[in-house]
């Protein structure tokens, strides 16, 4: 029986308050690293755990930390990407609302490891409850000496600041987030240089997701071996899965990395609604290519999903049943990406505009022969030709819909109507 670690406090009364967090062993990891470990030892510990970023890319966290230069006269920064704009994703919000001190301790331990004295939490502006509780938690941590000057009697100084976003999906891309923090228009930067060398204010910067940072204190206290024993060796650890869509028990589930998608949907989330069958599942937020029902036996980890032609992404699992028109799903998703494009890259800005026009025409029963071939060509022109992954995510999602459900697109064109509505 798997016992939750990251979500152990979410249903505890006053779980967001410092006394509750301390009663469950909170801030013991911070005390341990300050007393027993050097920064390099903490980095090595996270490397040994093989913790991979939970924000979507899955890059090894310890390796990312090790890229920060050890010397230099520039300050180092730690940034927490809490924007969580990916549709179907709500895991970071729950951590910040129900257990914000878990994030703050993760920030403190991580900052100690990389030599940063300042952290910024870039949070989605609509998350008002999470913002208020983070502010309260930061004040509590200051009062108890977990933040501020000479933390717990050491020579480690550390401050956490909250920066609220204004509803731009592109700010989930790490370099666009950095531009937004600097007061500029949020647009992806050309890399290299990478943020670890030249990030916020042209200084070395590490950017981690909320869930990634929340894992760090548990690795410190339980050890890297404990973490690696959960799930597959290449993608270990506990994982938060967001279940939504046409399913009986939507919600947030903490389970081992690598759990089969079918087991997650049918057993944990209760399966499809009464009288319905599962048609497809989007496994990682709308950026992840859709998987048909026949492919649901895939493991929910980075490598297994990549091999299956999709990706884990943010683990925002969206269930689609047989009452749903996949042309409509594809249209709504591409409309979202088109609306949220920052406009910097011509293939994304212009290509998605044309994709939306064609899809709307097909969905309305006004499609013409050759439209699907045009969509294929547009996807080819967008994919791999943009600064960030927004255009890639849109193109991959549409390609998967056209591959697995092309008959529905053809039916819209030949019958000149939607067969489902």
What report would you give on this structure?
The strands form 2 sheets. The chain has a 5-stranded mixed β-sheet, with no helix packed on it. A 4-stranded parallel β-sheet has the order 3-2-1-4, with helices on both faces. The mean pLDDT is 95. It is an alpha/beta fold and 421 residues long. The chain contains 17 helices and 9 strands. The relative contact order is 0.12. Helix 2 (28-36) runs parallel beside helix 6 (100-114), helix 2 (28-36) packs across helix 9 and helix 13 (326-340) packs antiparallel against helix 16 (390-404). It has 3 domains: 18-228, NADH-ubiquinone oxidoreductase 51kDa subunit (Rossmann fold); 238-321, Ubiquitin-like (UB roll), CATH 3.10.20.600; 326-415, NADH-ubiquinone oxidoreductase 51kDa subunit, iron-sulphur binding domain (de novo design (two linked rop proteins), Up-down Bundle), CATH 1.20.1440.230.
Domain count: the total is 3
Task: Provide the helix percentage.
Answer: 40-55%
Shape: globular
CATH architecture of the largest domain: 3-Layer(aba) Sandwich
The CATH superfamily name of the largest domain is NADH-ubiquinone oxidoreductase 51kDa subunit
Mean pLDDT comes to: 95
């Amino acid at each position: 029986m798997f016992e939750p670690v990251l979500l152990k406090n979410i249903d505890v009364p006053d779980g967001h308050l410092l006394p509750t967090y301390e009663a469950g062993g909170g801030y013991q990891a911070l005390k341990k690293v300050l007393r027993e470990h050097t920064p390099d030892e903490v980095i090595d510990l996270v490397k040994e755990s093989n913790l991979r970023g939970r924000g979507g890319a899955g890059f090894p966290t310890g390796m990312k930390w090790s890229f920060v230069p050890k010397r230099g006269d520039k300050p180092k920064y730690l940034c927490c990407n809490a924007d969580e704009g990916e549709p179907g994703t709500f895991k970071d919000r729950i951590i910040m609302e129900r257990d914000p001190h878990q994030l703050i301790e993760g920030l403190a331990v991580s900052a100690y490891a990389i030599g940063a004295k300042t952290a910024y939490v870039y949070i989605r502006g609509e998350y008002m409850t999470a913002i208020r509780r983070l502010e309260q938690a930061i004040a509590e941590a200051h009062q108890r000496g977990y933040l501020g000057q000479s933390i717990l009697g050491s020579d480690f100084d550390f401050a956490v600041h909250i920066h609220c976003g204004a509803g731009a999906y592109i700010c989930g891309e790490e370099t666009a987030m950095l531009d937004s923090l600097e007061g500029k228009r949020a647009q992806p930067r050309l890399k290299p240089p990478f943020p670890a060398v030249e990030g916020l204010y042209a200084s070395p910067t590490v950017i981690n997701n909320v869930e990634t940072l929340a894992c760090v204190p548990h690795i410190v206290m339980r050890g890297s071996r404990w973490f690696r024993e959960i799930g597959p060796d290449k993608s270990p650890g506990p994982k938060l899965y967001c279940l939504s869509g046409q399913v009986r028990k939507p919600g947030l589930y903490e389970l081992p990395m690598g759990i089969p998608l079918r087991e997650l949907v049918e057993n944990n989330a209760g399966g499809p609604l009464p009288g319905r069958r599962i048609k497809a599942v989007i496994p990682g937020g709308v950026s992840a290519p859709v998987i048909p029902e026949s492919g649901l036996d895939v493991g929910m980890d980075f490598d297994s999903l990549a091999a299956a032609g999709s990706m884990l992404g943010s683990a925002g699992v969206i269930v689609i049943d047989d009452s749903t028109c996949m042309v409509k799903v594809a249209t709504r998703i591409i409309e979202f990406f088109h609306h949220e494009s920052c406009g910097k890259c011509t293939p994304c800005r212009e290509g998605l505009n044309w994709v939306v026009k064609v899809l709307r025409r097909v969905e309305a029963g006004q499609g013409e022969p050759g439209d699907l071939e045009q969509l294929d060509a547009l996807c080819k022109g967008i994919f791999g030709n943009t600064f960030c992954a927004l255009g890639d995510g849109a193109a991959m999602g549409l390609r998967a819909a056209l591959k697995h459900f092309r008959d529905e697109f053809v039916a819209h064109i030949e019958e000149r109507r939607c067969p489902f509505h």
